[in-house]
Structures are given as C-alpha cells and as structure tokens.
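FORM 12-B: Structure-to-Sequence Request
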C-alpha cells in the first residue's frame, strides 16, 4: 500500500505544482479582470485543498523537496499585491479570502506536524497572517 501511495504522490505532485504555478502566473497577467481572477483563484483554492489532503497523514518526500516552491506560492496569496487585494477589499466572501483560508489551513498543518522542516518559513507566515 505504501508503494502505491508513493507512486500516486510522485505522479500527482508535478502536475499539481505546475497547475498551481501556471494559474498563479495567469492571475499576475489578468490585470483587473475580476471574473478571470475569480476562476483562477478558485483553481488555486482547490489545488491548495488537494495539497492539504496529500500532506495530512505524513510529509511526502516529493512535497518536502519542493517546499520552497509551495511556500512561495502560499506567501504570495497571504500577502497579495495591492492590485489583487483591491479587487476583493469590500467582499468578505471573496474567492481570495477562501484561498487565503485554505493557505492558512495548509500552513497550520505544517506548523503542527512538520515543525522541523517548516521552521525556516514560520516568521514569514506569522507576519503574513498577522497582516491579513
């Protein structure tokens, strides 16, 4: 069973991270198009929830090796650009806030279960979450 789970994680991680980065880059180029950003941010929210699910039992090696890439993406949405934050400033139920919530859940999981591996990111995320 462990071999099968590892195989699935190894196969799924690359496309999941690629989708996350591609969607994130598309948000950057979407300008002020809120409808386009809504779709992209919803995609990122779903990817973040999948990330959480794949990491909740144990820290897979492939996720540990790519932790800098994932944490950089989470940081980007916990400390969004002024332009992106401005699109959603008056909407408490906005898709950006849902994505930020999903990122916070992932960060909380890593703080609780993978403290040693996550330690170098802690200060950044404490500041990000404090400033939300």
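FORM 12-B RESPONSE
SEQUENCE OUT:
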């Amino acid at each position: 069973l462990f071999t099968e789970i590892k195989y699935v994680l190894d196969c799924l991680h690359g496309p999941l991270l690629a989708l996350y980065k591609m969607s994130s880059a598309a948000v950057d180029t979407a300008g002020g198009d809120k409808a386009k950003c809504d779709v992209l941010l919803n995609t990122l929210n779903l990817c973040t929830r999948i990330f959480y699910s794949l990491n909740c039992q144990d820290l897979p090696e492939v996720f540990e090796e790519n932790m800098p890439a994932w944490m950089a993406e989470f940081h980007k949405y916990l400390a969004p650009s002024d332009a992106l934050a401005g699109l959603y400033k008056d909407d408490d139920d906005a898709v950006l806030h849902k994505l930020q919530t999903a990122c916070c859940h992932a960060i909380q999981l890593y703080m609780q279960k993978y403290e040693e591996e996550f330690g170098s990111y802690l200060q950044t995320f404490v500041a990000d979450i404090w400033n939300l």
